[in-house]
From TrEMBL:
<comment type="similarity">
    <text>Belongs to the small heat shock protein (HSP20) family.</text>
</comment>
<dbReference type="InterPro" id="IPR008978">
    <property type="entry name" value="HSP20-like_chaperone"/>
</dbReference>
<protein>
    <submittedName>
        <fullName>HSP20 family protein</fullName>
    </submittedName>
</protein>
<feature type="domain" description="SHSP">
    <location>
        <begin position="41"/>
        <end position="154"/>
    </location>
</feature>
<dbReference type="Pfam" id="PF00011">
    <property type="entry name" value="HSP20"/>
</dbReference>
<dbReference type="InterPro" id="IPR002068">
    <property type="entry name" value="A-crystallin/Hsp20_dom"/>
</dbReference>
<dbReference type="InterPro" id="IPR031107">
    <property type="entry name" value="Small_HSP"/>
</dbReference>
Amino acid sequence: MSNRPNPFDGLDELFDRLNRQIETAAQSWESQVDNRSQLDLSMGGSATSIDLADEGDEFVVTVDVPGYESEDLELRLVGRRLAVSGERERDREVGGEDENYIRRERTTKSFSRQLRLPEPVDDEAVQASVNNGILTVRLPKQEPSDEARSIDIG
């Protein structure tokens, strides 16, 4: 018999190390979920950062969207839930054919974030703009109605 090393000798140590790393990641993920803002309805981590500010008469949402154009983004407001999503596809025209690339890391990217607004907003007056990779959404708060309404008793 030959004195070749057994390729499976280090597997137990490798599996133990991998198991410890997975447990550490799971504990970290659980603490992030526990600390997640109740306003954020997004699942999982996202490279896209989002801020919600209360500026008195309106809420202002800012979202980091580097490399996205306004036509790559979609905003939806349903009740008090704002959904922001974007998809950016790799431009095959730039630089010619794929075989011309020495290194190609820029690929199709997409994100989806949702958050629940603390108060109702006037959906007719919402404004959004993209400038230098930052999406800004202005959501004027809905004025409380002072009108008296009759309520039928059934």
